[in-house]
Specification:
alpha/beta; Rossmann fold; 3-stranded mixed sheet; 6 helices; 27% helix; globular; FkbM_Methyltransferase
Length: 235
């Protein structure tokens, strides 16, 4: 007899990881080009940045990671790969500081507090830290990315349930002429308090000129879809 869904650990099977990685790389070839600018929000230790560099070595990646231990590894990676600029900040709706919830497996860390008593290490709270926060539009202006004459090719955001805030923080730059494509993690099950929904993200991007182009699904051990990476391109 199958167990209730609550007893399954929401971890990925290796097969899912490999399949998603291959599919994302396939589409990176379609949306990126040499010398593209990529914003990598929730970079962790640079896993996605390395995937991008594997597809297009001549890119410029701004990688945001607020968790101290993960950022230290990201900084080391940046010393090897000059394409990566590590930034020790979280992207949020506000410029300033905020409490960040660091999980036992820090890939699940978030500005949102995890729902209690979840079995996975990436949803089990280890500690709270105070991190610096900024907005995407503030960063774009500071770096003068709006003056380059070409759009930011890709915004990738994996903010563990807070991705709508990341997207909205782009402000006036949330349009395909400024940020051409967006790859965002969307959740179909609640993992965090005040988690932002797929429907809210879809509506926000739809009204700003984007359409859903592809879903890269992640299944949990119960074989149901729990979350996915969603690619949005210009309508």
């Amino acid at each position: 007899m199958n167990k209730p869904h609550e007893f399954f650990r929401p971890d990925l099977d290796a097969e899912d990881l490999d399949a998603c990685s291959k599919a994302i790389k396939r589409d990176l070839l379609r949306i990126l080009e040499p010398n593209s600018i990529v914003l990598d929000v929730g970079a962790n230790r640079g896993q996605f940045a390395l995937e991008v560099i594997e597809v297009f070595p001549e890119v410029k990646i701004f990688s945001f990671e607020p968790v101290p231990e993960a950022f230290n590894d990201l900084k080391l990676l940046g010393s090897t790969y000059q394409q990566i600029t590590p930034i020790n900040q979280a992207i949020s709706s506000q410029v300033g500081s905020a409490t960040f919830y660091v999980m036992e497996s820090d890939v699940g860390s978030s500005l949102l507090e995890p729902i209690a008593n979840q079995p996975s290490k990436w949803l089990t709270l280890n500690k709270k830290v105070t991190v610096d926060t900024t907005r995407l539009d503030t960063f774009v202006l500071q770096q003068k990315l709006d003056t380059l004459g070409t759009p930011i090719k890709l915004l990738k955001t994996d903010a563990q349930g807070a991705d709508l805030d990341v997207i909205k923080s782009a402000g006036k730059f949330l349009n395909p002429n400024s940020i051409e494509t967006i790859l965002v993690e969307v959740n179909f099950k609640n993992f965090y308090d005040n988690q932002q929904s797929f429907h809210e993200i879809l509506a926000e991007l739809d009204k700003n000129g984007y359409r859903l182009a592809w879903l890269y699904p992640h299944r949990a051990h119960d074989e149901w879809l729990w979350w996915a990476d969603a690619l949005f391109i210009s309508k």
